[in-house]
Amino acid sequence: MTPHSIPARVYWEDTDASGLVYHASYIRFMERGRTELLRSLGLEQRQLLDGASGAPIYFVVRAMQLDFCKPAVLDDLLSVETLITEIGGASLTLDQRIRRREETLATAIVKVVCVEAGRARRMPAEVREKFERSRGAPSD
Asked: Going by CATH, does the domain composed of 4-135 fall within 3.10.129.10?
């Protein structure tokens, strides 16, 4: 499977006093990767919140396991890769990687949950189908 990928440039605001990318910046880069994956599937977050798929829904991070492998620095051009690895009734598991060319700088396994009115709920069928099509394989 080919992951969804977006570019991310390292700016001054992404670094800490040592000149390296601050750990929370990697999390922001990954959030953008997840948002752009949704957009590429025709799932605009604003439309989901406005109830385009029935009830207003949104996705929240339930768990995140991070591994920081190598540092990025000012002006690096990175790629943020996002791959759906599991689709549950109300959740998705994603594998995310931040790379500088072929070098992996950070990885994350992220579980997101579909939420309506503050409570987990099954994904609407049309939303789930878009995720399943992006994986190219049937879900469990």
From this structure: yes
